[in-house]
Each structure stands twice: as C-alpha cells, then as structure tokens.
Amino acid sequence: MGATLGAWAELCLQAVAAAGEAVARLGEAAGRRVVAAHAEAYRADDPETIGVDAAAEGAILEVVRRAGVNATVLSEEAGEVRVPRAGQPVFIVVDPFDGSALYRHGIRAFWYSAVGILAADGRPLAAACLDLIHGTVEVAGEGKGFTGRLEGTTLRDPVLLRPSGVTALAGARLEVYLMKPAFLRAALDRAGPLLKAAGFVLPNGGPPGFADVAAGRVDLYVGLQQGPTEIFSALALAEAAGATVTDLTGRPLRFVPDMAATGDILCAATAALHREALQALRANRR
What we know:
Helix 8 (207-214) packs parallel to helix 10. This protein has eleven helices and 15 strands. It is an alpha+beta fold. It has an eight-stranded mixed beta sheet, sandwiched between helices. The chain has helices spanning 2-5, 7-25, 28-32, 51-67, 100-104, 181-190, 192-197, 207-214, 228-231, 235-241, 271-285; strands at 34-37, 48-50, 70-75, 79-83, 89-98, 112-119, 124-131, 136-141, 144-151, 154-160, 173-176, 200-202, 220-226, 244-246, 263-268. Helices cover 35% and strands 31% of the residues. The chain is globular and about 50 Å long.
C-alpha cells in the first residue's frame, strides 16, 4: 500500500500503528493516570495529559525520529517539536489519542489516533486515522485514499475512500461533537439548523469526523473551535475522497502552525450538500 499512496502515507500508517501498539500494551489504570499538564494552555476543557496520551504520542514521535525526515511536529500533548534533518521540510500534525475523556471514564468508544503530513506551504500530503478499538484505518496520500484493517503497518482489504453522495440536508447523517457541555451548547447555538434537519447525529468530531465523511459513514461533519491537531491530522482524508471542506463561512481552511489557533469546519460529502448546509448556517446568523 505504501507503493500506491506514497512514502508520506506509509509514514502516517507506521506512526498510527505504533500508537495503537503502545495503547494496547498499556494497562488502563496506568493509562488513566495524570502524568503532566499540556505543554500549551490552549485546551481549558482538557488541561491534563494522561498516561494513554503520553504513550501514544511517545510512540509516534519515535517513529518520526527514526524516519529521518526534516519535520516540525505539532502534537496534542507536547506542542511543537522540531526534528531537524536534511531534505524537504514538512509539518507533521498529530492527535495521538483522540477520546481521552471517554478513556478516563472507562468507556470503550471513539478512541482514535491520527497523523497528518503537510508541505511547508501547508498543503496536505498524507494522513491516517486509526480506530484504536476496532483496528480499522483510513489513509490517504498522493490524492487518493483507502479504508481497511491495519495489521502491523499493512493495510488489509483496502476499499477506496468514497463519500456517500448525499446532496440534501434533510435526513442527512450529521457528525458534531456533543459530549462536553460547552460543546453541546455551542452546537445548539451555532449549528442548530443542521441538528434540526439531520436524520441521525453522531456526537463525535475531531480527526474521525473527516474520516467518517471520507468513508461514507456520515454525510456531514461540523467542527467547532477545533485546534490544528484536530483538523490537519486528518484533513487529507476528506480531500483525497473528494469531499467539500471549508470553514463555516465557506472559506478554504488555512493551516497556521500555532497550537493556540482554532477554527471551524464544514465537511460535506458533496458540493450540493455543502451549499445547503452553508445556507442554513448563514440564515441562522441573521
């Protein structure tokens, strides 16, 4: 699969595979233990690093260092980490363990690891998002992507990423994060028309939001006040699948290598669905 999607996608697969192995080795008691505060005070709702975050991130950083790439890493826990080498400079954006709030409570749901690689100009080159519970992964590189099972670092039974093709907002499957009160209130206020129109709501977000649209599991993903590790660790998946992605005003997403930066996302399976969702959001702001 590395030969098909390129070396950057292969590196993404190696990184999320290492994170998955680290999480699997870790006992849940050790995984829930608080080990540090975040390096950057950009997440007031989640200020602590727990063992599972640190284990996944450490495994990914070790893969990056061994790869010998000239990288600036932006990672959820460590912040910005420089790995200077010769060669093409890239950004590697990491959400090492998405779902740590659920992990803290012993809830085995929505645990992911995501790694994205961007060119120096911010253009997404590759990404992978691994479901740490089920072992399925979405991966993209060189303008195309697949979903399948990850065995070691090998993608098994690959299926081409393909969004759903849904064009109408009414009855659409919507993904928007609702599991913390502040995010629930924000979603009701800012994405209320989409919630009212949806036929099904998946209350998650972050990197798997892009993966879910790309693989056709949901039709529309709305992300509110997302940091760079929650966006650019998986944006390449949606782009490779042909989904339409902008902010909530219809502007293209712009990569800013700043851990304190936040942005909103509207990711739709089709351009028609994206247009209708944008219209509903604009009407809501009047």
